[in-house]
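Thread: quick sanity check before group meeting

JM: Hey all, I'm pulling together slides for Thursday and realized we never actually wrote out the predicted structure for the chain we discussed last week. Dropping the sequence here so it's in one place. If anyone has concerns about the input, flag it before I start.
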Amino acid sequence: MKLGMFTSGYQRNPLEHCFQDAKRFGYDFIELWGGRPHAYAPDLKAGELDDVKRLIDKYEIPVLGYTPEHNGYPYNFMIGSELQRRDAVEYLKLSLDMAKELGSDYMLISPAHAGYETTYEEIWNRMEKTVRELGDHAEKVGVKLVVETLTPYESNAFKSANDAVELFKRVNSPYVVGMVDIVPPFVQHESIMAYLSKLGDKMYHMHIIDGDQGTDSHIVPGEGSIPLPELFKELKEAGYERTATLELVTGYINEPRLYARRAIDRAREYMKEAGF
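JM (edit): ok, ran it. Output follows.
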């Protein structure tokens, strides 16, 4: 199982620090956060793509995943008018194009909050329409579209393994796949490992990090309440051999380099105990 670094927590540091640290600390790849000042898709298209490619070549660290910023401001394809949805879709299509140029295997999206007045029918119609459009573009460019469930603190639209199963029934594309960030199932008292059995071949990626009940905080491994040593053993026995990103976001933004090192050291320790 390859372990990746998520770069969102480095947004107050130069992007080069991410590549330096991924190389120094022993990460296998980068999952690149697509927001300013680092890798916002329109900026990449306008010429900054070459800067990122130079870092990939210099440090010999691939960008296997690209995660454009899109479930806050100004983009959230689950809320607002049709004009606003179309704007978000066009932005995410451009992001898929940039993911391809970066050499990424996948691009990650997460359906965010659809608003308090929105019905389930409206949520699913909008999500199905949007993911189908993005899936068609993903197939065109040859990049997998990974759809991530979120916690109920973040979304009322896409929160569980059953939601993912339902989406893949509605949008049946080999380029639309799923994943599990282990915090959402943990805080909802859902089984993490059930994602593997329910999603089957659609289970493409993981975000592994620690967490606590009652919050969507992403915590350094070993400092929350998720039994991570046992989880790694279960993943080993289940034969999970795909990618996992250690998704530290902005909770450690003051010292991302220190906590990125601690996170990979802990994860490697757990993997060794599990026999990876």
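AS: nice. The beta strands are 2-6, 29-34, 63-68, 106-109, 144-147, 176-181, 203-207, 243-246. The chain has a mean pLDDT of 97.
JM: adding both to the slides.
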